Amino acid sequence: MSTTTTTTPRKRGVVERLSKSWLYIGLIGIGLVSFVRIVTDTDDLTAAGTIRAAIIATCPILAAALGGLWAERAGVVNIGLEGQMILGTWGAAFFTYHYGPWVGIAGAALLGLVGGLLHAVATVTFGVDHIVSGVAINLIGAGTATYLAEAIFPEYEGGGPRQLNGLEAPTQITIPGVSDLANTIADKHWFFVSDIASFIQALTTNISTLSLLVFALVVVSAVVLWRTSFGLRLRSCGENPQAAETLGVNVYFYKYVAVLISGALAGIGGGFLALVASSGFSTGQTGGRGYIGLAAMIFGNWRPGGLLAGALTFGYTDSLRLRDTQSVHSLLLLVALGLLAFAALRAYRRQVRGAVAVTIAGLAVLAWFLSTDSVPREFTVMTPYVTTLFVLALGAQRLRMPAADGETYRKGSAG
Amino acid sequence: MSRLDVRSIGMSLLAPAIAILLSIVVTTIVIAAVGSSPGDFWSTMFEVPKPRLRVDIVNQTAMIYIAAVAAAIGFRMGLFNIGLEGQYTLASFAAASFAGAAYLSGWANVFAAIIVAMAVGAIWAGIAGVLRTTRGVSEVISTIMLNSIAITLVGYFLNNYGVKEGNSVHTKNIEPGTSVGGFAPFEDRDGEIWTLAIIAVLVGVGFWVLLNKTRFGFDLRASGQSESAALASGINPKRMILISMMLSGGVAGLIWMPAFFGGARNYGTSFQVGLGFLGIAVALLGRNRPVGMLFGALLFAFLSVKSNDLTFGTDVSPSIVQITQGVAVLAVVVTYEVVRRWRTRLEQRAVSRELAPTTEATA
Questions:
Q1: What are the structural domains, with CATH classification, of chain B?
Q2: Does B152 contact chain A (CB < 8 Å)?
Q3: What is the ipTM for the molecules in this complex?
Q4: Which helix (H) or strand (E) holds B168?
Q5: A224 vs chain B: nearest CA distance in angstroms?
Q6: CB contact under 8 A, A122 and B333
Q7: Residue A392's closest CA among B290, B132, B31, B301?
Q8: B28 in contact with A at a CB cutoff of 8 Å?
Q9: Which of A262, A297, B68, B196 is a plausible cystine mate for A70, CB 3.0–4.6 Å?
């Protein structure tokens, strides 16, 4: 490992370096957002309130995406994330009602883990098609949560057959000095600096500890999967299980662990929805976020940094639809500029056809921005899905999923 | 030979039998766990349904069966069309808008609307097909995305161009001359079996003929089993993917048509969601076989409709049948896999037994 990193050719051009690192892409992105904010005069675009809402919308998607990452890195496609998430919402509600929010989160993880266990038994032990099993788990998850809610919650205080309100949320924390300072700078509405400041303000003012936990889980997952021998073995099961087996790796064990963690993470995402994103449990509150998490993971090319960027993008658009339509409209300019920047990058790399296609798309969005002055809410709702389709259509060749992802593996098949 | 047939039939019935048994056990445990009485539940469920429910069961079976056939077309090709839900939502909305606009009258309007439904479903599924063949995008992911886009799009059109009535919005009602009722097998108040439920029969027969009696069906099955073998025998896999995806979407467009012309008469609150996913489940349950899926559809329709009785006689909520259905699907795919592995082992043993003397002779 170390030899390859030190001998990386250092001749890469500025553009290449800028377009390869998520950090630089993030900075350029913030710059673009700031530019659009000033041009269109919509301070709401990066107001601390917007960013706080975006963080809250991001976390469940992020947790689901991480769940997808764990499973798929071990070679198991987990479309049952949605069902495991639904189980998590119920688990969080039930355990929080009885034992408080932290046991509630553990309960959410536990219920998600049960969903993961079902998936692991079906796909790893019995070799059922991963998609088929996932679809069945989504049916079971939705059915179980609905039934258990109807059977149990009506007797609870604040509960009904379809909801359980008034749940205690995990503690929120504020870092006093930083929060105020950031607030002052954010109110100046300077280019770039104020946008960063309101981001810091959102992160340091009344942020739920559960949000911090979810972000910490991204780092933990990245470290465990890429910096430990456990993670290396786990990923080897997703790349080439036969080879892993010949090296003495217990493939079934690693796949089980990965899918169980995957389910638990999706469950935590569901718990977040019930405890932080809203004031309680309600039936059907996941609204397809498990699928969006899966999309965020693909968007991020099966990498922790990438899926974080994907989840933030989807979470940001998800939160904007709850705010005024003007900021959504100025988002169109952002999308147009982003597409044009992407087209320029393609042109620089001499990918002519791609550059032309993206330029046309960018100009179309720009024309849309200039010719209208509001965007229907429904179109914002669609954004994550359309984005994913675009990313897949344009970049499917550059995305690289684990080599043995979705394949059924049987012990002893290495021969 | 005939002994083998009996045995293979027995084995193919074994898996669904185990699965149904397992789902009964799980359902019983879940009911008992929350403190309700499983006995009440099963006795209510197994009572002979009242005439009105019998009519409902037939109607639901028809719609679920169409959905199952749509899913099966994809499965037989090795494609996972998880987007049935979006395809039939968008198609139903388009057909309802078209029929409501009354460009034509009487049966012409009905036929034209059905063609609109099939076309819209096929085009929507075709997007996923094109993405798969030209850009290599997995149809599973793209159809999931297309589901959400379709449902949001319909919401947008309905809110902006629909007819508002109190709190609900719906498309324009079709004219009385255009609605195709049905026939009432019992008394009038028990409801009608929709005429267009006949679509289910046509689709089922069509599916069987297509699959077993046409060159296309052979190509489809061949490509589904081995794409490389199909390519070697001159089948264009990309063309097959696109056609079968669109065919699947076209059939998906038909799913809600019986209910639309039979009773709903507009697209609005009466639209029944979730049939797409039920169809996938039933296709898995029935092993993508026309007859197997018929039994699956009947079972699911029976469970869904009969669960309405639970609210009167028991304290078990009707959503319990969702668990039963989900467990049945998971159990059936698991047991099929187990039975398949067991059979492979039996065959391997039989082969090695028959080969044993000859190898000794040559040795």
A1: 50-318 (1.10.3470)
A2: yes
A3: 0.88
A4: strand B168-170
A5: 27
A6: yes
A7: B132
A8: no
A9: A262
